[in-house]
Input
Amino acid sequence: MSQSSKAKRDKRKKQQAKRPFLRLNAQQQVQNHAVLVNEDGQAVAAIGLQGREWLLAIGGQTMGNADNPVPMLAMLKHLSNVQEAEGRKVTLEYSELMQKLLDTLAEEAGQTGEEYLDKLVAEFASEQAEDAAAEGEASDEAAADTAGAEGAADAEATPAADADADGKPQA
Output
């Protein structure tokens, strides 16, 4: 190689347009499409689109992903209702794209977007009520089992109390 070939090559590289580096496993940016905001203006939960995947984040942690974000939107709406029932002020805001998806699914079901969303929210509320009832029954059963075990222990202790000092039962 000649001494001038390096200079020519460097000059040619400087004249070429810069191209961005593509990194392996580079994450695409997440675009928020629904955000649940508390009274302090902090995001409590969000639904975002990353590439073609919808992500659900709660408290800064990604909790799940899906192809259809509408059930996640219903979950956030339910969470909003629960927070308001507990006396906290929260606001759920969502994008036009999310509204269009909701309207499309609602149209297929023969409802308006709000009716469709309210139906999904009611399903979450009923599932939560069923879970709470099941937990209540389980705790009632556990209490009954505990009481039964205590009763059996008392019954076993009674004959021992009837025994005299030698440990023989009295007739």
In short: DSSP finds four helices and five strands in the chain. Confidence is low (pLDDT under 50) at residues 151-163.
